[in-house]
Amino acid sequence: MITEQSIIDYIATAWLDGDTEGLDSETPLTELSIIDSAGIFDLVHFLQSEFRITVPLHEVAPGNFQTVGAIAALVDRIQNEKEGAR
């Protein structure tokens, strides 16, 4: 999935010195301290720029950022809501 790969690449570049080894859609990002609460806001900025979405403040919750899969699901949900509003 393009969304997941883009997120993996960004996380690897921003926090793992470019190393994607062991990073997949189910890697527990917050549990392994790959991303902390401040990092979530950096990631939100990336998502908004990369996918041309607006992440509502109520969606900036730990559960939406636990794994790459959860983040990709958030992006898909926001994009679908955006498409449905047209």
UniProtKB/TrEMBL annotation:
Which residue intervals define the domain Carrier in the entry?
2-79
Q: Which residues cross the membrane?
A: none
Q: What is the top-level taxon of the source organism?
A: Bacteria
Gene3D superfamilies (UniProt xref): ACP-like
Q: PROSITE patterns attached here?
A: CARRIER
**Protein's name according to its UniProt entry:** Acyl carrier protein
Give the organism, scientific name: Streptomyces alfalfae
